[in-house]
Each structure stands twice: as C-alpha cells, then as structure tokens.
Amino acid sequence: MKSRQILVPLAAVAIFLILWEALVLVMGWPNYKMASPSDLIPAYEKYWSLFLVMGWQTLWRTIVGLVLAVIFGVALGMVMGFSRTMRDALYPLLVGFNAVPKATVVPIVALMFVGWHDFNTVLIAFIISFFPIAVSVSIGLSTLEPEYRDILRSLGASQSQVFWKIALPKTLPEFFGALKVAVTLAFIGTNLMEIVSPHGRGLGALFDSGKTNSDYPLMFAVLIALAFLGIVLYYVVVALEKIFAGWADRTV
Amino acid sequence: MDNLINIKGVRHAYHTATGPLPVLDGLDVQVPEGGFVAVVGPSGCGKSTLTRLIAGLLIPDEGTVQVHGSRITGPRSNVGMAFQNPVLLEWRTILENVMLPLEIVPTKLSKAEGQARARKLLALVGLEGFEAKRPSELSGGMKQRASLCRALIHKPEVLILDEPFGALDAFTREDLWQTMHKVKAEEPFTGVLITHDLRESIFLADQVVVLSGRPARTQFVMDIPGTGLRTLDDLYTPVAAERLNVLRHQIEVAQGRVPAAAVGPDLPEGPGRPANETVTGPLS
Ligand SMILES: Nc1ncnc2c1ncn2[C@@H]1O[C@H](COP(=O)(O)OP(=O)(O)OP(=O)(O)O)[C@@H](O)[C@H]1O
Ligand SMILES: [Mg+2]
C-alpha cells in the first residue's frame, strides 16, 4: 500500500519524461523551440549551486509571504465572519482588489519599492495569496449553524471560547482548501516579481538570465525546478491538513 | 407555588429588514421543579424563540422569564440544550463531545470523574461501546442520544429540548421516547420539550402547552396526570385518544383553520383548559 503510493506517482513522472523526450526527438525540434529532458541534465550540472541558492531565495520568500497571508487572511476572515457590517463593507473592496490582474500590480510594486527586492517579492506573494484564505475563513465562520454557537453560548461561554472550541476547528477543512490554492498563487507572485525586477534574485531571475543569454535549456530547467518546488510546498500543506483536519476526510 | 421556570406576560419581536416581527405576545409558561412541559404550536409560531428566552440567549422585550425566582438577564451555566440537529463536533470522539460542557461550566468534577459520568450517561442511553467513535459513524438516532448526554453531563437545572426527535423515523423516535423516561428516572431534570408530535407530547410530558399562531400566546394547557414510566400501549387507550383529539383541535384553532367555538361544544369533557383561566395552577 505504502510503496504503491510512492511508486505510482514516480512511474507517472518517468513516463511523462519519456514521452517528452520522444516528442522532441520525433518532431526534430531544436532546443530553442523545446528543450528535451536530456538537455536539462547538463544545465543542472553546470548551474547546480545557482539552483540551490536561487531555489532557496524563491522558497523562503514564498513561505514568508504565505505566512503573512495566513495571518492577515485569517484575521480579516474573522472580522468579516463575525460581523455582518464588516462583511458588507469589505467584501466589494476585496473582490475588486482580487479582480485586478496581479501581473499589472507587479511592475507597480517593483517601482514603488525599487531596490528592496526581498520586500517586494514577499509583498507580492502576500498580496496575491491572502484573498482565498480570507474568503474561506469568513464563509466558514458566517455559515456556522446557530445551534453550534448556542450549545456553548447557553452555557455562558465567551465569544473566544466559541471561536477556539467550535468555529475555528469547524473552518479548518475550508481553510486548508484555500491554503492549497494560496500556496500556488504565492509561488506565482514570487516568480513574477523575480522575473520583472531588474537585478532580481531567485529562480525567476535565473529564468530571466536564461532568456537574456539565449540559454534555452536553462529556462526549461528552471521551469522544472519551479514545478518541483511547487509540488513540495503543496504536499507540505497536504501533510498539515492531514494532521489538523484529517477528521474531515470521510473517504475510507 | 414553587415554579422552577416562570414565564409571565412575555412579548418579543425580532427586528428584521422589513420592520419588527412580533413573535411572542402574552406568553405564560410555568414549570415546577422536576416537571416536564411539552410545548406544541403551529410551525414558525415562536417555539424556538421560547427556548432561547429560557436559555438566556435572548432577553424579552416585555414580561419576565424567571428561573429559581431570579430574572434571567443572560446565559447561565445551568441549562442543557439539545436540538433537532444534533450538532456533534466531528473532530471529537463521542466521549469528548459529551464532555464538552465540562470545559465551559465551572465544575467540581475532575477530568476522570467527568469521564466516568460521561460513560455512565452513554451507557444509560444505550451507547455503551461507542465512546471512541466519531459522530459520522453513528446513526441519526444514536447521534441524538449522544446529544442528550451532552445536554445532561453538567447536571443542568433545566433541560431544553427543541424538537430533538423531529428528524427521526417513527420507530427510532418511539425508542428514544422510552429512553427519555429511563433517563428522567435516573437523572431527574426539569424540562421543556418543543415538539410537533402530539403523541410525543402526551407520552413524555406531564403538561402540554399549546401556543397560538404567530405572535404566540399561551392558548391552552393540558395536564397529563400519572407521571413516571409510561408504555407505548398507554398511547392507544381511550383516554389518550381523547387527549390527542382535544390537542389536535387546539392546534387547528391555533393554525386558524377552525374557530375555537365551532368544534368546541362537540368535544367530550376534556382534561384541558383554556390558558387564561388557570395559568397559575400548572399541575394538580
Ligand atoms: N434571528 C431571527 N431574526 C428574525 N426573525 C427570526 C429570527 N429567528 C426566528 N425568526 C422568525 O420568528 C418566527 C418564530 O421563529 P421560531 O424559530 O421561534 O419558530 P418555531 O415555532 O420554532 O418554528 P418551527 O416550528 O418551524 O421550528 C419565525 O417566523 C421566524 O422566521
Ligand atoms: Mg423551531
């Protein structure tokens, strides 16, 4: 059972790589049109230390942005979840904010805080990812059936007891659903900023330098590295979800 | 007159987007210590509102709600509630669910004593062996039993049941009625039961209060003598049939489907009485 859970995804990845290699071979594409997996190995060999440094840059900035998004998103969600007035006031604002394509915000922020590259990147990762968290928490709290609240309130429980004992745990499944979306979004945000910023760092900047130097295998190698990091982050969230909201999984 | 719960002349309106919605108007209910009063009335007439008043979750616009002679101004820890929706917490085991109130109310019980009491209650309602299960692993009737245990764990003075068996099938419901009698014998409580099942009301309660349509006032009160264990056979006696008839008529009046006088004279000498005649003498 356990080994199957590991082997099956690995086999899927292997088959994917083989099909990719075969496709490039059969079509006879040059590597500036589409690099093949075998082109990537030299790229990793050549730049492995850069990949480690840049990968770490991307990773920590994404995580910091995400942590801020969780803190702010949960707080905002609580305010909107418990107060109808705040919900009515903030919702249109939030939706409008979220509707703005983030690709247009990136250059603005890059200019606004020019030179503060870490700050810029974390900020974009945060801006782009708090929305789903805030919405899920506010919906989870505002749709709490009144009976759940009454069970505790009738015993003289305080609002905060209701929150910690019932509202928060009950919202966790929705929260983790949103966090999975937020992880991917934060990652996109980090990369956009790294690519757009002059003198950027991180995997996005590495991608950009590949473009500038017409090093196409490097660009593809960065894409794969990004995919790998994305998968790792996603499964970290899945593991956290198993620990904190595993009870919500009813599939046997 | 030693009434544990004393509701007098209560008026209440909800404030809605379309203006105030009067829900209760002239509500009188008395429950003596150890008494069990069933409240019936048309749908939406304000029965759940009444339970929220007794629990202190709502303060009436006018009139008084007293428990033990003191006026209720907010929630106190000495009530237990169970609803049609069992609202068990899925992230807790059944045992932990039952023990939830002990984490809120001040209690002299140690953790181990609380656990022992929870196990005893679960055994009493026939849930022995289910302590470690999750709510989703229980049937609807079992969830209601667990919810009942949770309402009783902290030995509340007042047990408030709002249509607790409303969503169950007829057989399960009758099972639970008998469980209720057992529980009442072992763990005496003062109770208010909201129900839409007249048979349930005369089987469980020692007084049935009929509320009028919204805004609700106390329309009719019927005493059911002979408390203690009843059997389902008791529901098929002529006396029971007559009581059900009277109550059914009262409900129809409350729904506005028949005027009070139209069928009234044809009824046999009933055991009930209009509310405004003897509001202060609940149990004979
Ligand atoms: N919080 C609220 N705000 C506004 N109106 C409410 C609120 N709660 C209940 N009402 C209204 O008050 C009336 C009485 O509600 P209540 O829940 O007390 O009725 P009920 O007798 O318990 O009904 P049912 O038999 O369907 O359970 C209903 O018309 C309902 O729509
Ligand atoms: Mg109701």
Automatic annotation (TrEMBL), chain A:
Give the InterPro entries listed for this entry. Answer: MetI-like, MetI-like_sf
Q: Where is it mainly found?
A: membrane
Per the UniProt entry, what are the Gene Ontology biological process annotations, in alphabetical order? transmembrane transport
> Domain named ABC transmembrane type-1: which ranges?
55-237
Keyword Transmembrane: yes or no?
A: yes
Q: Is the keyword Transmembrane assigned to this protein?
A: yes
**Cellular localisation:** Cell membrane
Q: Which PROSITE patterns match?
A: ABC_TM1
- Topological category with respect to the lipid bilayer: Multi-pass membrane protein
Membrane-spanning regions, if any? Answer: 7-29, 59-82, 89-116, 122-144, 175-196, 216-240
| Protein family membership | Belongs to the binding-protein-dependent transport system permease family.
The entry's protein name is NitT/TauT family transport system permease protein
Q: What species is given as this protein's source?
A: Loktanella atrilutea
From TrEMBL, chain B:
Q: Where is the ABC transporter domain?
A: 5-238
Q: Where is this region: Disordered?
A: 262-284
What domain of life?
Bacteria
* GO MF annotations in UniProt: ATP binding; ATP hydrolysis activity
Q: Which CDD domains match?
A: ABC_NrtD_SsuB_transporters
Keywords in alphabetical order, please.
ATP-binding, Nucleotide-binding, Transport
Q: Pfam families under this entry?
A: ABC_tran
Regions that span the bilayer: none
- Sequence similarity: Belongs to the ABC transporter superfamily.
Cited PANTHER family: ALIPHATIC SULFONATES IMPORT ATP-BINDING PROTEIN SSUB, TAURINE IMPORT ATP-BINDING PROTEIN-RELATED
Record protein name field: NitT/TauT family transport system ATP-binding protein
Which organism does this sequence originate in?
Answer: Loktanella atrilutea
